[in-house]
Structures are given as structure tokens and as C-alpha cells.
Amino acid sequence: MYFDILTREVNSFMFVPSIIAGSIGSYLLGMPSVVVVSWVALFACTFLPPDNFVYPLAGGLFVITAVLLFLSSALILFDSIIIAILYFLGIREKYFGIADVKALIAGAISFPFAAGFGYPVFLLISNLAIPVPFLLILNSSVAGLLFIPYLILLNIRKKNGMGLYWTYALGYNEEEYNRTPFKYRVSDYNGRKIMVYKSPFMVAIFASVAAAVIFGI
After folding, report:
1. Dihedral angle, C-alpha 205, 75, 31, 129, nearest 10 °
2. Partner of 165 for a Cys bridge, out of 22, 56, 81, 169, CB 3.0 to 4.6 A?
3. Helix, strand, coil: what percent of the chain each, to 5?
4. Which H or E run includes 102?
5. Which parts of the chain are beta strand (E)?
């Protein structure tokens, strides 16, 4: 998260210790070994080139295998499908960077429903147990939206013109772009040059995992 804020780059291998610790913990808490192995295998597939056909093929094989193996356990199958969805979000890095996908899957595998916590608030208000991987999708989406007010305030302070780009970008400023090029991607909006803000999504993911595991929301 620290390096994501500073450079918007994260070493993908930093999630390997989390996967190892999380999978061992899940197994010791009663998760079947075949489930742990299949989830870890899918995480390993995130190191495949996301723009290669092999990447979605591996995800598809995982889903088929999960349905065949875990059909008798609704919660395990549900968790597996959610983890697969997180994996598919990395295809061509169109929706999420591959490091973000690794972080989401690492959080999902490290704190599955078998851990016995991660949804106490939902248990208090209903009889439904909401698995952590599902909460990660909801939480990450909401947390990501929190960057929008930040960008709007920046645009107001910089007196940039109105427009839809206010919610995801700043008006182009060559001095600012040259000073922190890692924060922006230069693009065009209705003939106007803008700087699309690269959100430090690891912050949102960290907040999402913490909220799901500690508070159950």
C-alpha cells in the first residue's frame, strides 16, 4: 500500500507470503485441502500474461472444476465463484490492474468464510452469513468511489472547467504531470487534454479487507 501511494506500482510477489499464511490457516481451521489447493492454483494463474488467451482459459477451467468438485457445498462453491470473478477482473487489466487482482484474491483466500469471522454485523441483523470474498467486491467498489470527491475538490481548487471528467481526472497541467507522472495517464476528453488519475487502489483494498474481517461489512 505504501509503494502504491508513492509510485502506483506494487511488486506482485509481495502477496505470496499472505497466500501461504492464509492457505495454511484455512486448512488448519478445517478447509478441505482440495479447496485450498484449487484457490492457490488460481492465484498462481494471476502471474500469467493478462492479455493472453491462456489467462481467461485458466479461469474458465477453475470455474468448471469448482462446480464439479464443490457442488455439494454451497458456501465453498459460492466463495470459489466470487474468487473466480475477482480473477476475471484482471483480463487485459481493463477493469483492475493485475496487482490489484492479486491483492483481492489474497485477501479472499486469507479470510474465507471458514475462518468463522468476517461477517458478525450481518449475523446480528439476519441469519445470512456473508463470505468475506463477496464483501471484498462490494467494499472495494464503494471504497473506490471515495476517490471521486477528492478529485472534485482538487478540480474546484484548481478552478478547472465543469465536465464529466471531474469525477476521474484533472485538467492537464504540464508542470504537475512532469513532477508526478506516475499519478496520471494523459488522455483526451472532447478535444481537451486531461490527466486521468491513477487511484492508489491498494488503499481501497486494504480498507475493504479490514472492514470485512474486523467489522463484517
Report:
1. 60
2. 169
3. 65, 5, 25
4. helix 98-110
5. 169-171, 184-189, 192-197
Q: CB neighbours of 3 closer than 8 A, spacing ≥ 6?
A: 9, 10, 11
**Which residue type is seen at 31?**
M
3-class SS of residue 204: helix
Instruction: Summarize pLDDT for 175-200 with one digit per residue, the tens.
Output: 888 888 888 878 887 778 888 777 77
Angstrom distances, CA of residue 71 to CA of 56, 66, 67, 84, 146: 22, 7, 5, 15, 37
> Residue 77 has which C-alpha cell?
462453491
Q: Scan for cell 483492475, then name that residue.
A: 96
Cβ atoms 106, 19 nearer than 8 A? yes
For the entire predicted model, the pTM comes to: 0.71
Q: How far apart are CA 83 and CA 192, in angstroms?
A: 39
Low pLDDT (below 50) residues in the chain: 114-127
